[in-house]
Automatic annotation (TrEMBL):
It comes from the Eukaryota. This is Putative aminotransferase. SUPFAM superfamilies: PLP-dependent transferases. Gene3D superfamilies: Aspartate Aminotransferase, domain 1 (3.90.1150.10), Type I PLP-dependent aspartate aminotransferase-like (Major domain) (3.40.640.10). It comes from Lasiodiplodia theobromae. Belongs to the class-III pyridoxal-phosphate-dependent aminotransferase family. One of its GO terms (molecular function) is pyridoxal phosphate binding. Keywords: Aminotransferase, Pyridoxal phosphate, Transferase. Its cofactor is pyridoxal 5'-phosphate.
Amino acid sequence: MVASVEPVLDPKAAAVLQAAQARFLERNPTSLQIHQDASRSMPGGNTRSVLHTAPFPVSMARGHGYQVFSEDGHTYTDFVGEFTAALYGHSHPTLLAAITTTLQQTGLNLGAQTRAEAAFAQRICTRFGLARLRFCNSGTEANLHALGAARAFTKRRRVVVFRGGYHGGVLSFAHGVAANNVDVDDWVVAPYNDAAGARKVILDEAERGKGVAAVLVEAMQGAGGCIPATKAFLLAVRAAAREVGAVFVLDEVMTSRMGRRGLQGAVDGLDPDLTTFGKWLGGGLAFGAFGGREDVMAVFDPTKEGALAQSGTFNNNSLAMRAGLVGMTEVFTEEVADEFKGVGEAFLRKLRDVTVGTKATFTGVGTVISLHITDAGVRDIVRIDEVEERDDLKDIFWMEMMEEGFWITRRGMIALILGTPKSELDRFVECVKAFLERHKDLMVL
């Protein structure tokens, strides 16, 4: 998702990387064997692209609480957090009890509506200020169905999105429109965090005659490097969408965990027409949802003639409905959400402090953040496509943090898990500081 440069001009970095890779190979022989076995039945040994890493991916055996344990016998503090979905950690006792009870007393899927789905839907609507809501199975599906609603409601096709954005496996806009995106001819890509530029794109597209069905944006680009949107940008996009009669869709698949009402709760007057959800809200199970204005969501009302069909065998599966509801009401309450966001903000401040004067910085909001390393030492990144990342230095960081017992994504994204001890957060800050000192000839400006 992030622009990068290959390590071809820095022999010092190449030597350090080569040494780190040698240690990586020595530490993870079982993972190598698992990868080789997987490659016999899956292309490249992979079925989830984001998990592929060179020289091969590390395989995990199990997780417990805030930790994961590799097949090679290493214990890690989990900072991957299943890319924000593992907010509750691994086998949280409250959720484990809810899932076990549901399996024993309710069953998996009943092929019918249940009391649980109505209760869960009402809780989400109340918490996020939605008039109506529908469930699905992932954030990708949530965004696809939200756009389907917008197109049916407006009777238009074109959708304005933003460079660097990611809204699911077939809705990726890191460097324009990805080759495997759906509806490849219906996207209009605008600049992120550029209020005037975004407004111009939206209005120009509306004037071309085809009109704009929807404007889809993240309040923080997650896969695109954890780049927060400015309030001015979001409000300008909202105003332009309203001006041209487009449906304003806010993707909170990753960010709905940031405070009691997600990131939209931090921007007065944002008031999206539709919001999309996923990740943590299913209590760790596959989950998606979308909702908002009653008139827009009414396009799915099966009591009305000509309604859109939005089916899915597992949309209202018993486990996700119960685990999601219990998670929201008994574990990640509104008060806990606000408190946890504060924990993340304090952590981010410390990381930014120790990286001053170096090529490294951290961006993000609350408990979802990302490392960036640039030769220019850019501190405040507003558009990820305008910076070039040093992937060689990020690879060194990734491997050395694993040696310190931290499991983070190779690209540098961190999603904190509830219950991670403060001592581990502080230890990570110290490990970052030590990394910068150890490699000051590579990292100091």
